[in-house]
Amino acid sequence: MPFNETLRRRIRERKSMVCVGLDVDPARLPAPLRDKPDPLFRFLKGIIEATSSLVLAYKPNLAFYESLGVEGWDLLRRTLRLIPEGIIKIGDAKRGDIGSTAEKYASALFDLGFDAVTVNPYLGRDTVTPFVRDPEKGCFLLCLTSNPSSHDFQYLRAEGKCLYEHIAERAGVWNDGGNVGLVVGATHPRELSGLRRIAPDLPFLIPGIGAQGGDLEAAVMNGGDASGESVVINSSRAILYASSGADFADMAAVQTSMLRDAIAAAQEKKRAARL
Amino acid sequence: MPFNETLRRRIRERKSMVCVGLDVDPARLPAPLRDKPDPLFRFLKGIIEATSSLVLAYKPNLAFYESLGVEGWDLLRRTLRLIPEGIIKIGDAKRGDIGSTAEKYASALFDLGFDAVTVNPYLGRDTVTPFVRDPEKGCFLLCLTSNPSSHDFQYLRAEGKCLYEHIAERAGVWNDGGNVGLVVGATHPRELSGLRRIAPDLPFLIPGIGAQGGDLEAAVMNGGDASGESVVINSSRAILYASSGADFADMAAVQTSMLRDAIAAAQEKKRAARL
């Protein structure tokens, strides 16, 4: 089954659009774990066990693992094994390179067991090809990112459209396998509406709520489609570091649950507005 | 000393602008190494020992290491230790992410011992900041890439200029620490002249000769500046896989030497043309 169809089905089955971003940072470990052996693994295990019934997906952020060196790659492998069957695993790597090199990045990530990855489209189609070849594997292209400097290049207007809109259009063309999505920051609520018009069929992976200040309700209202199965809302720090004490996992679950409910409420409001 | 100044000095001292790209691929290992223990390390050791007197820089390509899994990261660490003092180590990772994540990528790469890295600028200034904070470390921004699909987005014209020209302009602004460079493919010889005018002071890392079909002489003539110390020419496969037999290291040295001489001849021709 093509990835985008799997994603829709999982959103229905799991009744959740929440993706927990695994930005695993030794500097922010809860205090009670610091003196224990293998503390990062214990932390991730606690977070995943407490939240897995509430989420659609987990999104390990490769930068955080890479900054741990060789041990980080081993930890990434062990993290993926912690994630129960049926939950989507998104590798947030934002890779992008010429064809022969992109092949290697794609096999590195998919061989680890990721169901989908994030890809930087600046190098164009041949960068993306190896990541979309298997329709069962998903590829979220960076489109309009959540950071303040997204304005530097992404809003440049060419041929009457912004660069990020060009990327969204191409992503639609490249979606012939049914497995391309877009990364669009919740910090751009108005642009989300326009992007939904340009790419009516693509799933949007939406980071930027919480610490980065994006508006959740606007993200769901503007980014979603009629089905309510087209949006994945990511939260990382607000969930992982909800508490720095022994109750870190419980507090992560509380935050995840609140986020899931807030998304459902926004979705309901959207549905009501359409009637 | 700022990285770009170190680079110029090393080009003078080593009388070479050759960068050997370390795209280490198990499928292309010379046959006599395949049954030996630790064959990839033996291969890299052979290549580096045979070519190190002829080169300015080595550029490990992280995709190839990552596709080897945990062992790949260990191999990368051991590869960096093989490179003699005084030779520049460029981490070809093409990372690009929002500020807090970019910090992690930057520390991951610089902690490994790289002197410079390649960075994808699509996300804008805050992506780049962590990579340029230390003036002694270099940051080559992807500008106009060597692959065929570079035409998809990089040539979009906004405000009278192509996207890749916008990036070159910004790179000049972001070079206040004297450590920003550009990646420009040799497959775009005409555009190299224009970029040299836009960014007269930035070093260009030029891939795309050899297997990808770029013209070396045009790259040096059009991409170089008057000093002849502003261009780094990368070659990967043509050197690494010059022979699949027991003479792989000797043949790699022959190819490297030929490339160094061809660059010098082009440089001489450029100098003569200016007189």
Topology of this structure?
The structure is a homodimer of 275-residue chains.
Chain A (H helix, E strand, L loop, with lengths): L2 H12 L3 E5 L16 H13 L5 E4 L1 H5 L3 H13 L5 E8 L3 H14 L3 E4 L5 H8 L5 E7 L12 E2 L2 E2 H11 L6 E5 L4 H10 L5 E3 L9 H8 L7 E5 L1 H4 L7 H27 L1
Parallel strand pairs in A: 1-2, 1-10, 2-3, 3-4, 4-5, 5-8, 8-9, 9-10
Antiparallel strand pairs in A: 6-7
Helix pairs in contact in A: 2-4, 2-11, 5-6, 8-9, 9-11
Describe this entry's structure for a reader:
Two copies of one chain form a homodimer. The first copy, chain A, has a single domain, classed as Aldolase class I (TIM Barrel, Alpha-Beta Barrel). The two termini of chain A are about 30 Å apart. In chain A, helix 2 packs parallel to helix 4. Chain A contains eleven helices and ten strands. Helices cover about 45% and strands about 15% of the residues of chain A. The mean pLDDT of chain A is about 95. In chain A, the strands form two sheets. In chain A, strands 1-2-3-4-5-8-9-10 form an eight-stranded parallel barrel, surrounded by seven helices. Chain A has a two-stranded antiparallel ribbon with strand order 6-7. By secondary structure, the first copy, chain A, is an alpha/beta fold. The radius of gyration of chain A is 18 Å and the shape is globular. The interface between A and B is large, with 55 and 56 residues.
